[in-house]
Amino acid sequence: MKQPNIVFILIDDMGWKDLNCYGSSFYETPNIDRLAREGMRFTDAYAACPVCSPTRASILTGKYPATVGITDWIDAHGHLHPARGKLVDVPYLKHLPDKEHSLARALQDGGYQTWHVGKWHLGCDGHLPEDHGFDVNIGGAHQGSPGSGGYFSPWTIPPLENADVPAGTYLTDYLTDQTLELLHQRDDRPFFLNLCYYSVHTPIQAKAEKIAKYEAKAKAMGLDQLQTFAEGELFPCQHKQGQRIKRRLVQSDPVYAAMIESLDENLGRLFDQLDTLGKGEDTVVFFTSDNGGLATSEGSPTCNAPLAEGKGWMYEGGTREPLMVRWSGRIAGGSTCPTPVTSPDFYPTILELAGLEPIPTQHCDGTSIASLLHGAESIEREAIFWHYPHYGNQGGTPGSSVRSGDYKLIEFFEDGRLELYNLREDIGETKNLATSKPETTAQLHRLLREWRERVEAKIPEPNPKWKN
Hints:
The structure is a single chain. By secondary structure, the protein is of the alpha/beta class. The protein has helices at residues 30-38, 52-61, 65-68, 103-109, 171-185, 208-220, 254-276, 316-319, 346-353, 370-373, 438-455, and strands spanning 5-11, 40-46, 87-88, 113-118, 136-138, 191-196, 229-234, 244-248, 283-289, 320-326, 335-337, 341-342, 384-388, 399-404, 407-412, 418-422, 461-462. The strands form four sheets. Strands 1, 2, 4, 5, 6, 9, 10, 11 and 12 form a nine-stranded mixed beta sheet that branches. It has a four-stranded antiparallel beta sheet with strand order 13-14-15-16, covered by helices on one side. The protein has a two-stranded antiparallel ribbon with strand order 3-17. A hairpin with a 5-residue loop joins strand 15 (407-412) and strand 16 (418-422). It is globular, with a radius of gyration of 21 Å.
């Protein structure tokens, strides 16, 4: 079998409903929607964590964040960790361990040329993409956002600080330019492109003409007449003491919409170039996000409704993601898959699609979903798990959760509270069934406890200095 090229597109902070094909009526994403028309769209796909670095580690290792040891976004300078509320955050690794045989290295071993473009956020010098199996690294550094320099050049991202570009160049455009150049310079081997845009992470910045377009659109749709935010409870962690959670109720931010349109246009450029080079049919394209949309803090630029909450929370808005996979002639166009899948699954899936032998000791938490892509209705797996023993900057509190079938159980560590939801009937997690369904609650809680013991998950300790 001829090995396919692999393009893995990972968006930063894109919510489950931030695309037209997932239900947005305000954002415009015609190019990304092509993937749904030409491939398979997953309705119940998940990131392994409600924040970025742990999910990114899970993709490259085939392991849950608790197994790897990276359970929160990597605060390289230790400014915000450990966070403290009623509990004290657990310690975690600040880089992808050298012992991990990354997906890039596995594909490199299998004859692939490997390229990383964009956000890394899995360690500093000595732990960058080139240290984990990537032949090329463009724009990958320790930081998790464009930082103080923002999206318009000159940038403050270390590898791009001296980029020879006109002032005011938009970062998303530049990363795509560099990607297209890699495609032109490729050799005859198959390629693995790990394309990790910084969009749509804060700072929320976009081109003026696109912002104006969405300001007019919001007005024409009457969105400017709707209540935009609801002020909620106080943040539970001490570093945001006195601040209240601000939940966005509607998708209407014109700057965020403009960022998404620029992202979509650039992906259209990539898809067109693959076709022009005659590589469209030889390439498997994955599209997903690292965590849920930012809906409760830091400007709250998007809304994930009907999902509850967003980035940094244990609810569906924090972890349910858009996922589409296209491989012309191999995956049925316009197909939909409702089977729950999670980000550690990508590693064994990509190896199988590439015709390479599995490495079960490495991708020990992932399950190949290749059979689903070829039309199977299910895979053999009892449950999928999450463990986030930290306070989210967005208001979420430490907890673990498990999904088995239609049911999801969350255990919150501050008070030991259990919440059980039937996601098929209650996607918004509005009806806690923990009391009315004690047997299901006990079964899922047992699965969750046993899993935490197996992976030696760390549990946060009480804060002796906490005052109500």
